[in-house]
Specification:
globular; Protein-Tyrosine Phosphatase, Chain A; alpha/beta
Amino acid sequence: MNYYLLISLILAAISGMFSITRQFQMLQQNSYFPSRYTKWLKENFEGLPIYLFLISSLLFCFGLYKIQTFFIAACLGFNIYSAVNTQKKSIKKLVFTARVKRLYTAAFLIFALFVVLYAIFGDTVLGRAAAAVTFLLSFISPILVYISWAVTNPVEKAFAKYYVNDAKRILKSHKNLNVIGITGSYGKTTSKFILTRILSEKFNVVCTPHSFNTPMGVVRTVRESLKPQTQIFVCEMGAKNIGDIKEICDIVDPDMGMITSVGAQHLETFKTVDNVFKTKFELANAVKTKNGKVFVNGDSAEIISRIENENFTVYGTDADFDFTAENISYGRNGSEFEVKLGNDTVKLTSKLLGLHSIINITGAAAIAYSLGVSVEDIKFAVASLKPTEHRLELKSSIKGSLLIDDAYNANPEGSLEAVRVLGSFDGMTKVIITPGLIELGDKEYECNYNLGLEAAKYCDIMIFVGNNRSKPMLAAAKDSNFPKDKVFAVGSFREAMEIYSGFADSNSVVLLENDLPDNYLN
């Protein structure tokens, strides 16, 4: 056994543990699906690790172990710096969840196995093969990611099965619990928080926090948040594939449902809007087996065109709907409007901006009214609503300017509405910063082009993030004859804010529309 080679292997293993940080970050941002991670990898994997591996392999083959030790040590230093620096700059950092910790443990054990094999068998064929694999995994870290995922996946499935069964047990123990499912291509998170706030005037309510809308996010909420006194559980349900909503419904068995919209979202996996509709209405199918009410947004063209002669409770802005919002006006202090609730018409005020916010409030008020919440309680609750974080949230910004923070909005209709809200700030310099929209399949270019057209109508300055992603929006700006010196394309949000700071003053307002995670910025 050569001790310089052994030291090189140990350093390589440590280096590999740092090099997989970025890879695990992207695996996590792609929901731990290897197929999605692979797609990101194809677009972003760089050749440097391969060249470094080839250099290390030559040193190994020619027995230059001392030089190799110093070479590996240098690579270790670079990987430590790169891992720390990348996390500092990342918009969405790697979260060290229990699952990530298990992935790291698997990676460590894999490295330990091959290092020990060399320590035992030395310069035999088996020992040198173990050494070669160690170097391979330390430099070409995606291979280690796939192996770690494969090793831990059976464990993750076992944990998931246990947690799901435990959540079902807890739900069954709440005999009088009313479960309200909320889904939609967009608007579901905001509607969830609005509904929870209104229902809280009369009931003890628990809802899925933040954007917890996956099966395991729902299961975690049930296991950690439901209490014996809980009367209503408001459950947000997300989906990227047919059957995803049904999977959640099979866990929580909803009594009522709210479908906020159907549109061109996640078309890379759904393929067609019809598949989106089919998936969202898996909630309706589950509720109707219990003879429960399903509330749907009639202003969603994709919904209203598909539910003719079916038994749904419809809300929106049309006077013929079951629950209607009308006489809508906006100002710097928010929104004013009237909602028809049965035989009652109530005037509501809210700090929330945008027509879609009014529609979400109308749907939530309709459900609360049907469950016996009084008109006065609804009025008070709506007036006290605060904007959902990063959803058309009005904030103070640099140099006394205003910021409309819509960073979590990633749908075509919502983005267009956000631009219109920006346009309502008369007499101010209006600026948009956006990387555009994603996961829209073959409609992505069209939707981003339309976003650019809408921005050109209302904005004085447009700043697009992503040199490649901005192309359809730049094309729209050009076709709209938007002033060339007022439109910019940059590589990062930091650069965008630097440009905006040159224009910002107390008479300017900037819309931050869709803050994409790192795996989409290019």
